C-alpha cells in the first residue's frame, strides 16, 4: 500500500469515526424523554424546601403560607451541550396558581445544580438572590411566570407576565401573560386565577430560537403563534449536563404554586400531556370576612330588622284604627230598619251601577 493510499484510508477512517461519534452523542442526548400526567407515583424527582407531592398527584412547590421556597428537579441531568452546540430541547407542563394574596410566581428552570446557592424567597423565586444576580457563574436559565410587580433591582413593569431569564431575574425578554388566537388576537391570561394553564417551552439548537407559548387548558389546542419567540444563545449559560425542574416562592403575600403534569425531551418534541388525567388541586377555604365586612353585615341586619319592626307596628296601628272606625249595629237595630254601611251599599248595587239603582 502506497503512502498516499494509506493517508486516504486514515482520513476516511477518521471521518467515519467522527460521524459515528456524533451519532452516538446525538443518541445519548435524545435519550432524555419523560412524561408525568400525574406525580402520584413519581420516584425520580428531587424535592427541596416546601415542595411536596399532594395525595391527589399534584406537585406542590409552595402552599399559600408566607415566605416559602420550594423547587423540584428531575433526578438525572440532561446532556444539553454536545460539541459546543446546545442540544434542542422541548418541555410542556400544566400549572395552577391558587391565589391567597397573590404570591410571587413560579419558573421552569434549567440549572447546573439541583442546589441553588444564595436563592431567596419573595421576588427572587427561590432561584437567585440579591447578591448573585447576573453572575456568569450561576449557569441558570429560567422561564418565569410572575404574578406580582417586583421592586428595586428587578424593575419589572408588569405583575402578570412571562419572562426569560439568563443568570438573572432581570428578564432578557418578557411579555404580559396571554395567547394568540388563530386570527391573531391576543387574549390576556391571569396567571393567578386558579385556572389550570398549559405552557410549552421549545429551544432549537440550530437556529438558537426560543419559543414560549401558554394557554388555559380550556383552549382546545396549542396556539400556533408563540407568546415569545426570541433568538438566544444558551451556550454561555449551559454546561454539558444540566438539571431541569421548577422553582417557586412566596413572600408577604402568598399563593399555592402547583405543577399538575410535565413532559420533557431533548432532541425532539416533548410528549403531549393527557389533559383528561390531570390531578385535582384542593382549593383553599374561603378567607374569614374582614372587620369592615362584618361591620357592614351587622349594619345592614340592624337596618332590615328596624324596618321590619316599623312596618309591623304601622300595620298593627292600621288594623286597630280600621276596627275602631268600623260601623257596628246597635242591638235594637237588628230587628228594625237600620243603617247600611258603605260596603253593604256598594255590594248591593254592584258598585252603584245605574241599572241596579233604577
Automatic annotation (TrEMBL):
Q: Which GO CC terms are listed, alphabetically?
A: plasma membrane
Location in the cell: Cell membrane
**Which keywords label this protein?**
Cell membrane, Lectin, Membrane, Signal, Transmembrane, Transmembrane helix
Q: Does the keyword DNA-binding belong to this entry?
A: no
Identify the domain of life: Eukaryota
Keyword Cytoplasm listed? The answer is no
Q: According to its UniProt record, where is this protein mainly located? A: membrane
A UniProt-annotated Pfam family: Lectin_legB
Q: Which GO terms describe its molecular function?
A: carbohydrate binding
Gene3D superfamilies cross-referenced by the UniProt entry: 2.60.120.200
Residues of the signal peptide:
1-30
Outline the extent of the Legume lectin domain. 32-279
Instruction: State the annotated membrane topology for this chain.
Output: Single-pass type I membrane protein
- Report the transmembrane regions from the record: 297-320
Q: Which family does it belong to?
A: Belongs to the leguminous lectin family.
**What is this protein identified as?**
Legume lectin domain-containing protein
Ranked from the top, the taxonomy reads: Eukaryota, Viridiplantae, Streptophyta, Embryophyta, Tracheophyta
Amino acid at each position: 500500500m502506497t503512502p498516499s493510499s494509506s493517508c486516504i484510508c486514515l482520513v476516511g477512517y477518521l471521518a467515519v469515526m467522527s460521524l459515528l461519534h456524533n451519532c452516538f452523542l446525538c443518541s445519548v442526548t435524545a435519550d432524555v424523554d419523560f412524561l408525568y400526567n400525574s406525580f402520584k407515583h413519581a420516584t425520580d424527582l428531587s424535592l427541596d424546601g416546601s415542595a411536596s407531592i399532594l395525595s391527589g398527584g399534584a406537585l406542590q412547590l409552595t402552599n399559600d403560607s408566607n415566605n416559602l421556597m420550594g423547587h423540584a428537579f428531575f433526578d438525572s441531568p440532561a446532556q444539553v451541550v454536545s460539541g459546543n452546540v446546545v442540544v434542542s430541547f422541548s418541555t410542556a407542563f400544566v400549572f395552577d396558581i391558587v391565589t391567597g394574596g397573590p404570591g410571587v410566581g413560579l419558573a421552569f428552570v434549567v440549572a447546573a445544580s439541583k442546589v441553588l446557592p444564595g436563592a431567596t424567597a419573595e421576588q427572587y423565586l427561590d432561584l437567585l438572590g440579591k447578591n448573585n444576580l447576573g453572575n456568569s457563574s450561576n449557569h441558570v436559565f429560567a422561564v418565569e411566570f410572575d404574578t406580582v410587580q417586583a421592586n428595586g433591582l428587578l424593575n419589572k413593569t408588569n405583575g402578570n407576565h412571562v419572562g426569560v431569564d439568563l443568570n438573572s431575574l432581570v428578564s432578557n425578554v418578557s411579555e404580559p401573560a396571554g395567547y394568540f388566537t388563530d386570527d391573531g388576537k391576543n387574549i390576556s391570561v391571569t396567571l393567578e386565577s386558579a385556572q389550570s394553564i398549559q405552557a410549552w417551552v421549545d429551544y432549537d439548537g440550530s437556529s438558537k430560537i426560543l419559543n414560549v407559548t401558554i394557554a388555559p387548558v380550556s383552549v382546545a389546542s396549542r396556539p400556533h403563534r408563540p407568546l415569545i419567540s426570541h433568538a438566544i444563545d444558551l451556550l454561555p449559560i449551559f454546561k454539558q449536563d444540566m438539571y431541569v425542574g421548577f422553582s417557586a416562592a412566596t413572600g408577604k403575600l402568598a399563593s399555592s404554586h402547583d405543577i399538575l403534569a410535565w413532559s420533557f425531551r431533548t432532541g425532539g418534541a416533548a410528549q403531549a400531556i393527557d389533559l383528561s388525567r390531570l390531578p385535582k388541586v384542593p382549593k383553599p377555604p374561603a378567607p374569614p370576612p374582614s372587620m369592615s365586612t362584618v361591620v357592614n353585615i351587622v349594619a345592614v341586619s340592624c337596618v332590615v330588622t328596624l324596618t321590619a319592626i316599623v312596618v309591623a307596628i304601622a300595620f298593627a296601628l292600621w288594623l286597630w284604627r280600621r276596627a275602631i272606625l268600623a260601623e257596628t249595629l246597635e242591638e235594637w237595630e237588628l230587628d228594625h230598619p237600620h243603617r247600611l254601611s258603605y260596603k253593604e251599599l256598594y255590594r248591593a248595587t254592584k258598585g252603584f251601577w245605574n241599572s241596579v239603582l233604577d
